[in-house]
Write a structure and sequence with these properties.
The chain is 68% helix and 0% strand. With 169 residues, it is mainly α.
């Protein structure tokens, strides 16, 4: 008997990549960390001492005022706070009105921030102009995208083709 040597085909194994890149995060040493922390704490401390200083100066200034001047100062501050609150409320109401107008017109309500104003009439005017311009722009864009050559009328062109086929037989 003859010996038959059977060779099995060697399966090729994919080679492992020679270099595997390992991304290492840059780690701080304890000294570097301490230094950065000390710098941050120094900044915050300086900021805090500045705030304390301004508060003390304001308290000293108010202490030197007479009773009438204190009342006027308090009244002025209250008036300023009321004005800012009124302004915030007016803007909030105008935002809601504009959102309602945008929703009725099917315009994205995220765009309402571009038309808000303190004055209600001005806000509504801005909103109406925005909605009109937005709708015109969308219509123009849709019309431009739908432009093209109209399809050919198949009914008229097929008759001649059918006649040519019939004549050829």
């Amino acid at each position: 008997m003859t010996e038959e040597i059977k060779k099995t085909p060697e399966a090729e194994t994919p080679e492992a990549p020679e270099k595997v890149e390992v991304k290492e995060e840059k780690l701080l040493t304890q000294d570097q960390f301490n230094k950065a922390l000390q710098e941050r704490l120094a900044k915050e401390k300086a900021k805090f001492t500045e705030e304390v200083k301004t508060v003390k100066e304001e308290a000293e200034r108010l202490a030197k005022l007479t009773a009438e001047e204190k009342e006027k100062e308090v009244a002025r501050k209250n008036e300023e706070e009321l004005k800012t609150k009124y302004k915030e409320v007016a803007i909030r109401e105008n935002r809601l009105d504009a959102i309602e107008l945008f929703a009725e017109s099917k315009v994205p309500t995220e765009l309402v921030t571009y038309v808000i104003d303190e004055d209600k009439d001005k806000t509504l005017e801005n909103a109406e102009v925005f909605v009109k311009t937005f709708n015109e722009s969308v219509a123009k864009s849709v019309a431009e995208q739908l432009k093209g050559t109209p399809p050919k009328d198949v009914s008229t062109s097929t008759d001649t083709g059918v006649k040519k086929v019939i004549k050829s037989f």
